[in-house]
Amino acid sequence: MKRHSAQLAHDAPVLPWLGANFWSRTGGPLMWRTYDPAVVREELAVLRDHGLNMTRSFFYWPDFHPEPGRIDDELCERFADFLDAHTELGMGTVPTFIVGHMSGENWDPAWRGGRDLYEDVWMVGRQAWFVHSMTRRFKDHPAVTGWLITNEMPGYGRVHQLDPPSSDVVTAWAQTMCHAVRAAGATQPVSLGDGAWGIEVTGRDNGFSLRETAEYVDFVGPHVYRSDTDRVRQHYRAAFECELASVTGLPVVLEEFGLSTDTVSAEAAAIYYRQTLHNSLLGGATGWMAWNNTDYDALWEQPPYDHHPFEMHFGITDGQGAPKPPLRELAAFAEILEATDFARCRRTDADAALVVPAFLERGYPYSRPADRPLIFTSLHQGYVAARAADLPVAPAREADGLPGTARLYLLPSTRQFTTRTRRELERRARDGATVYLSFCSGEHPVTRGPWFDGLDALFGVEHQLTYGVAEPIEDDVLEMTFTENFGGIEAGRTLTFRVAGNEDSRAYLPVVPRGARVIATDAHGRPALLCHTTGRGRTVLATYPLEHMAARSARVNPEQTHLLYAALAEVAGVSRPVTVDSPHVAADTLEHEDGRRFVWLVSQSDEELTVRPESAGPLRELRGGDAVDTVTLAPFGVRVLELGPRREES
């Protein structure tokens, strides 16, 4: 299966985008009132000196659009100078139009008067006029490398989304705004700036649909700030959201990510940036914009910093403009992008598919939005386990009819999919694929158990469920002992899994084999893993919700599902170009258009590790360096190597 690797290609000198969301330290969101050309140039130079090639900039809406039919010309002159400063340094910027939300506060133009931003025709017209007018003023400036319509409109258009707009209304609004950019004659790529927080990524319906708006935008821009109870899952959160955001095939730019150094240590800030940058690259992101360029210590009496003081310290430079650890991580990342010529690279194809149930993004009758968090978290944890197994996976959207073909289909803790998918999975197993599903009863008492037909026939079992009653897992640790060799797992080995979940989901599936082989049993002698030969392939059933239990556990990774995934990969004949015998180190590869291959090794250990990768060809340092047999990784460190020709080719 092809893994998403789409890149922007319109403005080679500033591609791939690597930059920061920019407010000058002289004023934050109010910088245009106190604009200081010298300070701005100093701030941009620090970014440029550390390998950054662009910024995301903002028209603070109340100031730039003070009256319904008037734009502030003096502020536009200051913005023109800001653009000139970028050109002087060989940088680009992506202006953002409707900026009424920023850093924990919403600001309206004085004339809005409570009008709805999506459905009030006059208000939509004023926004479109502003977008068109600002585009017309600046579209020909060489520093403008893209456009964004808003900043996090879901948090501004309808505060806290208590009454979210419908997707047809939002899509019509988005169409109007994007057409306003194009009608002004702009040719640079445009997107919405909504954060990609809609239903296809998060499972939450906020009216913004990536599928519905794809016709009007040129890239998708996730904003990722969610926290977790597990550090490894946290390190893969942005990557996983980028994978899901690729649903339309458009380039994915990690438009906002970052942290306040009021909330983490300097060392932890560096680690988070390093992990997020490299893992999101391996997750399909092809552009990055940190939040944000500087700290705002001098603005402590100014909103939003007076009531959200931690917002003062999201900067990658401090309040005097000196680099902080995140900027040094960005500089190191920039060197890797250059050394690999990343703009001409793509991710290696995958033989394994992570099946995304349609129930994540579609409101089927009498299905519940409350089911979607379980789908998201189980998929996220499955993605983490695949990374620990050095198993490249591509999302396969059930809503798209399981596009592509794979040797291995992973359905982690999946209880809901459609009849069409049930039959398609069986067909693919008969044609030679391996289909894996781990049972999950769901987190709600209504219709517990599987929401698909023919579990017994698909997996060669006869389930023993009782209506309405979950079969509780009474142990605190699941022991899964293998009764025969399975992939690289030898008979007699016991894997252990922490048990978690609520009274509905902390449940197993009692089964009697009816054609399936019992591969592993639990501590009570009950089937825990079964394999059923189907045509030229097989189906594999775990009777416990392995990924869901891990997803509901704190500080659990690396947990042992990765060993099962590695065994499934071996049984299914999945290609893993590079593997490392440590769940703390994940390996993945990119291919350059000239045939070169690059290997990323990413550590999730808080201690230094030395590993000996197994690879399909010899490893060496970048740019034709020395051969590499063993690799030492600093705590949470990253190494990038070149992978030579496959051994059979050399």
Keywords:
Immunoglobulin-like, 27% helix, single chain, Rossmann fold, 3 domains, globular, 31 strands, alpha/beta, 650 residues, TIM Barrel, 8-stranded parallel β-sheet
Structure report:
By secondary structure, the protein is an alpha/beta fold. The chain folds into three domains: 336 residues, TIM Barrel; 221 residues, Class I glutamine amidotransferase (GATase) domain (Rossmann fold, 3-Layer(aba) Sandwich); 66 residues, Immunoglobulin-like, CATH 2.60.40. 27% of the residues lie in helices and 21% in strands. The strands form seven sheets. It has a nine-stranded mixed β-sheet with strand order 13-12-14-15-22-21-20-17-18, sandwiched between helices. The protein has an eight-stranded parallel β-sheet with strand order 7-6-3-2-1-10-9-8. It has a six-stranded antiparallel β-sheet with strand order 11-24-25-31-28-29, covered by helices on one side. Helix 1 packs parallel to helix 3 and helix 9 runs parallel beside helix 10.
